[in-house]
Write a structure and sequence with these properties.
heterodimer; A: alpha+beta; Jelly Rolls; 2 domains; 9-stranded antiparallel sheet; 6-stranded mixed sheet; 16 strands; 22% helix; elongated; B: mainly alpha; Potassium Channel Kv1.1, Chain A; 3-stranded mixed sheet; 3 strands; 9% strand
Chain lengths: 305, 163
């Protein structure tokens, strides 16, 4: 009988769930849940620290993205002793990639990918004409240069991102990130129009106000009116459904980094997709001169739940 | 099953649970337990194996799981139908008491059954995701053995996650 008998030895106390099980379960929740559940007890805390957990929370292609960093792959990775440290660094400190044209960061609660397309990565109509737009270094910007609007009548900027760069199963929102040195002028008469959609197709349109005081002006009905609509005309426009004021207007908000942002639109990223999404912002109807906007870029990040 | 015995005689293993119950399983089922597959491959498996970490209640469930997976995978059904079938089976299989789920997870880890381990961890994850700290402590039957200072430090580090 002895020869035919064997046992698989136990390796820990039968009662307790091994830390490896807890770590795997935590890695299947979300970064936010794993951090919250660290408070359960020291085993949970220790499990929630493990590289196995944070490797799963980091995007599958994070190494490829870090390879595109202007600081170099090794110098980014060398700074961190653990995957958790790397994760939180990427949440709070966007890394500059693609030769300074984009930044990459993570959404802290979910680990989903966020990008900002630098002004230099955007198509800005008249952007190369020094009387209209000026390219300047700006200390508060994460990128080497920002685009300062000196004066245009035709305001048009476009950015593109391929959905394969983004996290799947996620609704993303795009924001113009901007500021001003001494006020933004010329946008108070006519709202701008944002469009987000698959490149080459009709996108979803949105009315956008770039005037930082726009929301207050609107609330107290002190929007300066240049064009007078009589009732009949307004009625016709309303029937056609393209009167700008019929849509919800997006107003700028101040970000944690002191820049302003305004929502341009949203789109859903499916796992299978490989589509170019185009995001545009135009104000070409007013015909008046506009100036004062300083553009850092267009940020694309998961829509807050 | 053929009745011609010589050719189809299957190799069987006897698995003994912590509480002494003996289960007879065919090799195709036994190899789903990575610990046993390794023993077989290393040619050091004995027909009688004691599993000290698993009670008979849990081992019966584990064997049921492995049997179903072994049969579905070896059957003549197409991959998509087999996939669907396993998904339905797995969903029903996870419809167990939380204590049983914890023990199944622990057993899958100990016996090294990758698919069952992933399945139980996924189910655990969905259960703990929306629970409070106190509820999770109760579910896992663990004490809060942090000191007051330690717990305060952890809560401070992850204050953002409680918002």
């Amino acid at each position: 009988m002895e020869r035919n008998t064997m046992s698989v030895e136990s390796y820990n106390d039968f009662q307790a769930l091994p830390e490896g099980c807890i770590a795997t379960a935590l890695s299947l929740t979300s970064p936010k849940d794993a951090c919250r559940l660290s408070v359960v007890n020291p085993t949970f805390r220790s499990a929630a620290e493990s590289d196995a957990v944070w490797e799963r929370f980091l995007p599958p292609d994070y190494r490829d993205i870090i390879l595109r960093s202007v600081d170099g792959y090794d110098s980014v990775l060398a700074k961190f002793r653990s995957k958790k440290e790397l994760y939180f660094h990427l949440c709070d400190n966007p890394i500059i990639i693609d030769g300074g044209n984009k930044s990459f960061s993570l959404d802290k609660g979910t680990g989903k990918k966020c990008f900002m397309l630098a002004a230099r990565d955007l198509l800005i109509v008249w952007g190369d004409t020094p009387e209209y737009w000026r390219w300047i270094p700006y200390p508060e910007s994460r990128f080497p240069e920002v685009a300062e609007l000196l004066d245009v009548c035709w305001f048009e900027i476009r950015g593109k991102i391929n959905t394969s760069m983004l996290s799947s199963g996620t609704t993303y929102a795009a924001y113009l990130v901007f500021t001003s040195k001494s006020g933004i002028y010329g946008f108070e008469y006519q709202p701008a129009e944002a469009t987000v959609g698959i490149s080459g197709q009709d996108g979803v349109k949105r009315t956008v106000c770039l005037d930082p005081d726009g929301e207050q002006r609107h609330r107290y009905q002190i929007v300066p009116r240049r064009i007078f609509f009589n009732h009949r005309l307004a009625h016709i426009y309303r029937r056609r459904g393209d009167l700008a004021s019929e849509r919800i207007t997006e107003y700028p908000k101040v970000r944690a980094d002191k820049w302003m942002e305004v929502g341009l639109g949203e789109f859903y990223v499916d796992g299978e997709q490989n589509l170019d999404m185009e995001i545009s912002l135009t104000e070409t109807k007013g015909g008046n001169w506009k100036n004062g906007v300083v553009i850092q870029g267009i940020e694309i990040r998961p829509k807050a739940e | 099953m053929s009745s011609s015995t010589e050719l189809t005689e299957k190799k069987v293993f006897l698995l003994k649970s912590l509480d002494g119950v003996i289960f007879e399983v065919e090799e195709s089922v036994a190899v789903q337990l990575e610990v046993i597959r390794e023993l077989i491959e290393g040619d050091c498996a004995r027909p009688f194996i004691s599993l000290y970490n698993v009670t008979s209640e849990i081992l019966a469930l584990v064997i049921e799981y492995c049997k179903h997976h072994a049969e579905t995978c070896s059957g003549g059904t197409s991959a998509t139908i087999a996939d669907e079938d396993l998904k339905t089976f797995d969903n029903e299989f996870m419809n167990v008491d939380e204590n049983i789920l914890l023990e199944l997870c622990s057993a899958a880890d100990y016996l090294d059954i990758k698919s069952l381990f992933e399945l139980t961890c996924r189910t655990l994850a969905s259960l703990i995701k929306d629970r409070t700290i106190i509820e999770v402590r109760k579910m896992f039957n663990v004490e809060n053995d942090f000191s007051v200072v330690e717990e305060k430090a952890v809560r401070k580090e992850f204050a953002w996650a409680f918002k």
